[in-house]
Structure formats: structure tokens, C-alpha cells
């Protein structure tokens, strides 16, 4: 009976060891903020975004000016002239909206630019995380900056600095 109990406990211990999983955590915001290329790309995106926003704003101001001029001259215009001016204003406004959509839409120029600048950096980070995961035999690595459901993670599980070292950005 005692041998059976010892064997059962030994088997349970081995089984638990076999199925034990190792977890780690990274903070992607922290990692990216410590990569100079990310900060440079982010600044470049901000400058492009401001430039494009100024272009769209200028077009919208022109539409507003056209509308104010139209309101001022409304009493002096014939019906045909009113219709023509209204169509011009609407066309100009549609052009401004289309320009805004081209720059800032879901698949707009800013999105494409962000992809071209950020994707290589993100790929490099993910490759480093995968390599560390294989080296350290982690079953799962969680990004604490994107998960709102995590209440507490032990700092011992944070491998963000290890990822930065792997990328050549040691602190």
C-alpha cells in the first residue's frame, strides 16, 4: 500500500513537471520607447500628419470662405448663379472630404506610411521575442501594455529589458 502511494505521488510530481508551463511578460510601449528608430519614425509620422492636416484645413477654410461670400452676395444673384455657386461649394467640400479620406482613411496614405515605417521595427521586436521564447522555453509571452484584464504581474516575469538587449539596445 505504501509503495503504491509513493509511486502515485512520484507519478503526479513527474506529470506536473512535464506539463508545467513557463510564462513571461513584455511591455511593448516600454520597448518601443527605448528604440531610437521607433521614436524617429513616430516623429516623421507626426510631421507628415500635421502637413496633411494643414492641407485639408486650408481646403475647408476655402470652402467656408466661398460659403460666406455666397451668403453675402445671395440677394444679388440670379437663380442660375445661386445654383452654380452652390454646386461649386458642394464640389469643393466633397474634394476636401475626399482628400481627407485619401490621407487619413482606413487604408489612407498615413496608414500606409505607418505600416512602412513601423512594421520593420515591430517585426524585429517580435523576432527577438520569439528567439528569447525558444531559448528560455517560454510557453506564453504576454504584452502587459495592451492587456487591460491583467491586474498584477510579478516584475520577475518582465523580460522587456532582455528583449532590448537582444535587439542591441541595452540599458
Task: Describe the fold and architecture.
73% of the residues lie in helices and 5% in strands. It is mainly alpha-helical and 171 residues long. The radius of gyration is 29 Å and the shape is elongated. It has helices at residues 2-19, 28-33, 36-73, 79-104, 109-136, 160-167; strands at residues 23-26, 140-143. It has one domain (21-167). It has a two-stranded parallel sheet with strand order 1-2.
What is the residue-mean pLDDT, rounded to a whole number? 85
Judged by helices, strands and strand pairing, the structural class is mainly alpha
Radius of gyration, Cα only, in angstroms? 29 Å
Shape: elongated
Q: Assign a percent range to the helix content.
A: over 70%
Tell me about the biggest sheet? Answer: 2 strands, parallel
Which strands sit side by side, in order, in the main sheet?
1-2
Write a short abstract of this structure.
With 171 residues, this protein is mainly alpha-helical. Helix content is 73%, strand content 5%.
Which terms would index this structure?
two-stranded parallel ribbon; single chain; 5% strand; 171 residues; mainly alpha
Amino acid at each position: 500500500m505504501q509503495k503504491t502511494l509513493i509511486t502515485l505521488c512520484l507519478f503526479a510530481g513527474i506529470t506536473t513537471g512535464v506539463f508545467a508551463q513557463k510564462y513571461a511578460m513584455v511591455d511593448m510601449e516600454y520597448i518601443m520607447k527605448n528604440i531610437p528608430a521607433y521614436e524617429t519614425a513616430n516623429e516623421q509620422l507626426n510631421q507628415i500628419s500635421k502637413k496633411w492636416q494643414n492641407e485639408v484645413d486650408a481646403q475647408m477654410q476655402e470652402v467656408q470662405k466661398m460659403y460666406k461670400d455666397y451668403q453675402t452676395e445671395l440677394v444679388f444673384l440670379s437663380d442660375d448663379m445661386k445654383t452654380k455657386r452652390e454646386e461649386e461649394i458642394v464640389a469643393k467640400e466633397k474634394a476636401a472630404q475626399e482628400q481627407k479620406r485619401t490621407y487619413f482613411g482606413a487604408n489612407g496614405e498615413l496608414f500606409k506610411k505607418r505600416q512602412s515605417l513601423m512594421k520593420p521595427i515591430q517585426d524585429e521586436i517580435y523576432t527577438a521575442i520569439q528567439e528569447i521564447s525558444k531559448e528560455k522555453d517560454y510557453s506564453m509571452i504576454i504584452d502587459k501594455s495592451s492587456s487591460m484584464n491583467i491586474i498584477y504581474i510579478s516584475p520577475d516575469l518582465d523580460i522587456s529589458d532582455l528583449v532590448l538587449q537582444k535587439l542591441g539596445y541595452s540599458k
